[in-house]
Structures are given as structure tokens and as C-alpha cells.
Amino acid sequence: VQLQASGGGLVQAGGSLRLSCSASGSFVRVTTMRWYRHPPGKQRELVASITGGGVTNYADAVKGRFTISRDSDKNTVYLHMVSLEPEDTAVYYCSADIWTAVEGSGLNRGDYWGQGTQVTVSS
Fold first, then answer.
1. pLDDT digit string (tens) for 63-97?
2. Gap between the Cα atoms of 46 and 34, Å rounded
3. Contact 91, 117 (CB under 8 A)
4. 58-71 burial, b if ≥16 CB within 10 A, otherwise e?
């Protein structure tokens, strides 16, 4: 099972970017998907999450500017970011709860992470 993130880059303040993250491999289903970010010199923080049913949650710092969405058929989560600020500069990571079949044991839930994608916002 693998998560592959893409879409980062360099953008000027006020600009926009869309990140994507897709799950691939052998699994039964993907439930909650999340975006985290790790700003330079700071701790990693949860940016947004979306459940399998589409319920979303956002960090206060990004409310009104970032939108998380998913395409469950493609096992893909997106993060659409607008009105970007220099403070949004960070490595962005996706994570997901992915259920795999375990022979003789039913299902196992694992917390999987993508490789990170750099977002840099210049002032």
C-alpha cells in the first residue's frame, strides 16, 4: 500500500495551489484522509481531514482558504489552497486510514503516509 502526493511548488503570496494524494496497492477501503504540514523550524500540524462520509475539519489557520475534498472512486484526496500566505510555507504530507485484509483475521487498519511535497509561498 502506498500514498503518492503531488502538486507542491513555488507560488507568490495570494496565489493558489492544489495538492493531490492517491492511494494504491492492495487494500479493502480507505476511510479518513488527512493533510498535515511541517513548517520550517516548527512542529508538524494537522491542516485538514475528511472522513469516508465526507465530513471535513480544518485548522483555524486555514479555514476559509483551504478546501479538502476526495474522489473515493480514485482513492484520492485533494487540498485546494487559495490566498496563500508566506506562513503556509511547509512540507505537506497526506495520510490515510487504509484497511487491508488479513487472512484468517479479518481487516486491519493502518495509518499510511505519503512522501511529502514542498509548498513555498514567497512574499
1. 999 999 999 999 999 999 999 999 999 999 999 99
2. 8
3. yes
4. beeebeeebbbebe
